[in-house]
Design a protein that fits this description.
Elements (H helix, E strand, L loop, with lengths): L1 E5 L3 H11 L5 E3 L14 H18 L5 E11 L20 H11 L9 E11 L6 E11 L15 E3 L4 E2 L5 H7 L1 H12 L4
Parallel strand pairs: 1-2, 1-3
Antiparallel strand pairs: 3-4, 4-5, 5-6, 6-7
Length: 197
Amino acid sequence: MRTYLVTHNAGKAAELKAILAGGPLKLVIPRKLPNVAEDADTYAGNALLKAQALAAALRRRHVSAAVLADDSGLEVDALDGEPGVLSARFGGAELDWPARRALLLGELRGVPPYRRSARFVCNLALLQPDHEPIVATGEVRGYILEGERGSGGFGYDSLFLYPPLGRSFAALTQREKNEVSHRRRAADALLAMLKPT
């Protein structure tokens, strides 16, 4: 099924293309995406907003295709679930990712390792013509490190320790991360809910 992917994040696009390769969703990256105010208070709400905006733009061009959108974030228990849905705008939209990671580490200064539990959450929203929307969730639990480790990944990956492998997401290979990540778990849940068309 030809499926347009809604994301401005090249890292997310690469992960989803790898995770969904060989499956029923044949991902297409649009050349232009509509601007969407991601102002919902849930990941699912934001994913649906993005998917609906692109689906509407495609309909105006008389294109009938599925649309897949991702919204995801990091929730830190010691920060009452922050940054959460504001993960990509934590500290303000003007911050770059190194500054955003530094801000998060500053917020956790003095918090002992055993109290630095966190989870990555991903919601995927799939819109298909003449079908009800499908929204799937995936999460993975870990801990926030006291400093960055690893040079791969993106976003908060270098701060997120994945205990079963004893390394940060940024220190995993792309294949290792794609086998265990919140995005993988959301994709698996989505595919399990997908009805044949």
